[in-house]
Amino acid sequence: MKQQFITIRPEDLLERVARFKKEGCRLVQILCTRTTEGFELTYTFDKNYFLYHLRLTAALGGSVMSITSLYWYGFVWENEIHDLFGLDVRFIAPDVDYGGHFYHLAQKTPWHDLSNAVHAKQAVKVNLRSGLGVDASVVKKEEGNG
After folding, report:
1. 117, 100 in Cβ contact below 8 A?
2. Number of DSSP helices (H) and strands (E) in the chain, helices first
3. Residue 76 and residue 47: Cα distance in Å, rounded?
4. How many alpha carbons fall within 13 Å on the CB side of residue 112?
């Protein structure tokens, strides 16, 4: 499977998504990650086993436009992003805009604030075994092996 990452500005999102829709691409997922700059969003589309990833950064306190007018089922990811990260997703289709109540959470927007975030001291290496999935046991580094 081949893939391409395309960095865009938030204001170009609908235009680019409309182009993928017109070309017959399928929306695969919308991923949100909290960064120090704000929110990094990746919209993934598929056509003939080729993945296109539209990547943008929305500023803290900013917003992104909903793509539910083009890909209605995107409402699941958009509501999730709104509820968990607190990012304003504007104009979600009214019949599927949960208005911050998609999830019942003990804490509102738990992934919005990075001030108490704990970061790993180092990445964990895992063994990938062909055909058998992932061996998620931690592989300890030996002296002299970096």
Report:
1. no
2. 2, 8
3. 21
4. 16
